[in-house]
Amino acid sequence: MPIPTDTNLPQSGATGGAPADGTLVQREILRSLAKGISLYRLTYISQGLQVKGYLAVPDSAMPVPGLIYCRGGIRKVGMVRKRRIFSMARRGYAVFAPFYRGNEGGEGREDFGGEDRFDVHHAITLMQSLPEVQSGPIPLIGFSRGALMALLAAKECEGAGPVVVWGGVSDLLDTYEERVDLRRMLKRVVGHPRKQAECYERRSPVCWVDAIRVPVMIVHGTADAQVSVEQARKLGAALERAGKEYTMELYDGLGHRFPKEDDERALDAVFGWIASKRERAEGRDR
């Protein structure tokens, strides 16, 4: 099936009204510096807002498995790096990385795992509608703050596949204590940790691991100065107590972002794990 490019697509819903959440509004082809990978900027609907993100697709026989990469940071900090999603797409996946609402020309304002979590929820619907993406649940990789977004999807979305938590925040109250430099932002965006404790708990997977429905892989560097490795251990212990399926790989001496060689090694392990979960799920469906 030919893939439309630089296209403004119909913006009405099935009944002729506003477009439904997850509807693709626009696909723009971008210059790709990665050989064998096509790059697009997609605009889609989330809670009535137009939200944007990058889609990287290997130039191979289609359809291919889909994957969502949930970026870390907030606003300009931690914005999606093309190189990052290219390295994932080279492993045979169509990779979509939402910018979250309010970024790169998108509407709305992100709020660190609050209403903006729906931008990931509806990205799953979007991915399942794309002609280059195979049918079935969509795996997610959440980096840093993106771990909250990915695990919220695993909690709340039927279409979410296995989740990889990489250098991920699992307890936002711990992040508030660990990261003095983030306290002003967290109080502004999330609230005060004592006065609005429930807002932090809603964004902390360790508080609701019982509701996570999919296998989880935890990847973390033991020398991570931005998200303590204790958050990985805390999430693993909570999943263990809840009887959930998970695996954890700690990389000794590595920080929040891995050097290239170690990063590629970790990506190989991550995609090997995702492939094993997909194969098992497909076997059950036969």
UniProtKB/TrEMBL annotation:
GO terms for biological process: proteolysis. The lineage of its organism: Bacteria, Bacillati, Bacillota, Bacilli, Bacillales. This is Peptidase. It holds the Pfam family Peptidase_S9. Residues 1-13 have a biased composition (Polar residues). It comes from the Bacteria. One of its GO terms (molecular function) is serine-type peptidase activity. Residues 83-275 form the Peptidase S9 prolyl oligopeptidase catalytic domain.
